[in-house]
Write a structure and sequence with these properties.
By secondary structure, the chain is an alpha/beta fold. About 40% of the residues lie in helices and about 30% in strands.
Length: about 375
Amino acid sequence: MDFCFDAVVIDTSALESYQFDFCGWTTQTLPSFFDLLTEKRVGLLNHPVLDGEIRKHISHSQLLEKVNGLQQNFHRNKEFYKLIGISPEDAIKRLSELDVVKKLLSKYNELFEGATILPFSSPDIVFEKYFSSVPPFSENGNKKSEFPDAFIIESVIGFLKSPPYKNILVISKDGDWKQAFENVERASFCESIDDALKMIQNTEKIESVVAACEEDILEAIRFQAECECYNLPEYEIPEYADVEIASIEVKDIGCFIPLRITPSTVVFKSIAQIIVNGSTRIIDEDRSVWDHEDKEYMYVSYSDLSFKNGHSEIECEISIEFSPEDNDYTARVTDTKILEEYAIDIDLDGADITFDDCSEDQLAYETLLEDHR
């Protein structure tokens, strides 16, 4: 499918899904999308209100939370980092000097440098829609909170009426935005940048390349999955315990989202289905006593949980180099990344689960070891 849009406007909600990672630290989605717009000569639209919202959200990006969490990890485990020759003090200092917000804002300025800044629309039109409950304003809820979006949307609609642009793609996860553009001529809508990437590029080449090295891709994902942290959302796990993974099998990959396609490389996102065996310690709620007034356990009992055939879906980013010859591909996996914010949730629905009660002697011994670390 040809990308038949002259310009794109991206709502804050669509960027938030990717943590405003314009630098590509966690995923190449945003850098790849903006590179593609440049390649296709598709214009960017911006608005003073939208610009202000993006800048405000960047300063609260989840990337900051991750860096802060990494600093805390160095603090908690500094003795272990010293065992492998890493200076936790130096690492903490370098992390504190990273200035994530400054780097993200700088990259945002670079990417939007050539964007067309839309003028403010007439307040009369916006207030008329406010009193008439026309999207983005609704009959119920806090309608006043929709004023920033209303000014952006009205400016985009006004811009569509002026040459030389013919078609605009609107990207937003906000249902009010979708309703507002539902009957606007020459405005197309999609809910995510992933969807936009699929509109711009064809996945057929990716499918052909993947077929040539699927086993290598599955093995690369398995290798990365073994290094991830896992969680069992159905159970409460003590702070000192982890989910220990015994084995991982990658069953399948699908849902290809093209990020970058060249004559010799493809970079794409995909969903991998994995089967996991492992164990952990859980708080046995049936044998523990909960104080409803103080909102804490008066007495805690634990069980060791083992499971087989737990399953999960993980989002991956995969890079492949290939040499096309007579429609056959010699392909090589060059990079694999698992895109998870914190830990991978394991679904135990249909899994084989066994429980073993922890003895008091065992717990006392482990507590003693923990106290002497």
